[in-house]
Design a protein that fits this description.
Elements: H1 24-29, H2 35-46, H3 64-73, E1 90-98, E2 105-113, E3 116-123, E4 135-136, H4 142-151, H5 158-168, H6 174-180, E5 184-187, H7 194-214, H8 218-222
Antiparallel strand pairs: 1-2, 1-5, 2-3, 3-4
Length: 223
Amino acid sequence: MKAKKFKRIDYGFRPKSYRETTNPLQAILRNVKGTNRRQMIPDYWEAGRIEELDTSYVADSLDDDLRERLEQINPSFMGGEYLPPYQASEVEIARIELQSTTADIISVRAQSVGKRIAYSICDEYESNFKVSPTSSNHPLTLEELIGLIDHAGFNRSLGLDYTIRNYESGDRTIEDLERLKHFTEVESIFYPQITAHYRRLVQSWYLEEKKRLAEPHPLHKRL
């Protein structure tokens, strides 16, 4: 599967390391599993109030009691919180966030194994994802990471697959199309432009499907 390329995106970008981040906020967020917490922490940081935030909320994982309390408030607080724990030297290099009821997350991870970097993909449901490449000597370029994510999907990019599957399971109306336009978001601390790439990929699919819906049905043409 060859990925589409869009203008003004540096697909040759390669981070120097997965061990280092460019600023202290990224260092805090790097392995925080919960989506809501990843949105809350920058708000406190930008307001200069990060010290007011309980340390439990900036930990990679929540303890069971706090997780249960947040789940009772709203199921969306559980987005990412049930992802598998990180292994030694493992870091999340990208995440696919879904606007489902429980805000499901797919996590793309890298782990130092000897002199190489091993890659894996996991979610909260123990799903099996295809991973290619399985390892490399150096951090991936943005193009290589996109290739890894795209290869893991079911006959199409994993960054678009959940959007299309939800659309195809419905009535395929313009209302469904509009509702699902922002269903999937891809983010990365190490690859800032990956979000723009997948937003444009979704937009490309959206415009093609919108055009198809606007075309007269073949039966109508004969009439």
